[in-house]
Amino acid sequence: MDDMRASTVGLMQDSMPKVAETATASNATSSFFTNYPLMSALLAFAIAQGSKFVASWYRENRWDLKQLVASGGMPSSHSATVTALSMAIGLKEGFGGSPFAVALILACVVMYDATGVRLHAGRQAEVLNQILCELPAEHPLADSRPLRELLGHTPAQVVAGALLGLVTATIMHLICGSGARS
């Protein structure tokens, strides 16, 4: 009888870590999909990139799958993403806390970079590509691949992305209601 009790206890101990692992994995998946700031940011990104995809089809009468992951264009998906994240954190955690401050600074840096460094790098790429086109065929760089020109955003594209992020986070907050607050 003691042997049977010992083996039952041993079986229970062996299975406990597996039950705990399953519960933890299920909890992690559940918390991922209920993470209001993360879902707001991802939704804003998807809407921004999706609108570029549809606009591309409207302009060119063909589907261009590259638009789903391309940078540049209207609206700025980077701005939409970081603004939705900041707004969602502010609505959930409060606008006076450290998490909102970190998210806001991140958003400002990303948007500044989009209209500054990346925009000007794209403009330089345009000039360099024009120079490459004018090189004689025997020049060693004549066969160089053109540089990507659409890297950054105009201020209007960044503002449109930021407004999209604000609206997305606010609507998600209204839909999630009190469940969005900790």
Automatic annotation (TrEMBL):
<keyword id="KW-0472">Membrane</keyword>
<dbReference type="Pfam" id="PF02681">
    <property type="entry name" value="DUF212"/>
</dbReference>
<feature type="transmembrane region" description="Helical">
    <location>
        <begin position="94"/>
        <end position="112"/>
    </location>
</feature>
<protein>
    <recommendedName>
        <fullName>Acid phosphatase</fullName>
    </recommendedName>
</protein>
<keyword id="KW-1133">Transmembrane helix</keyword>
<dbReference type="InterPro" id="IPR003832">
    <property type="entry name" value="DUF212"/>
</dbReference>
<feature type="transmembrane region" description="Helical">
    <location>
        <begin position="156"/>
        <end position="176"/>
    </location>
</feature>
<keyword id="KW-0812">Transmembrane</keyword>
<feature type="transmembrane region" description="Helical">
    <location>
        <begin position="36"/>
        <end position="58"/>
    </location>
</feature>
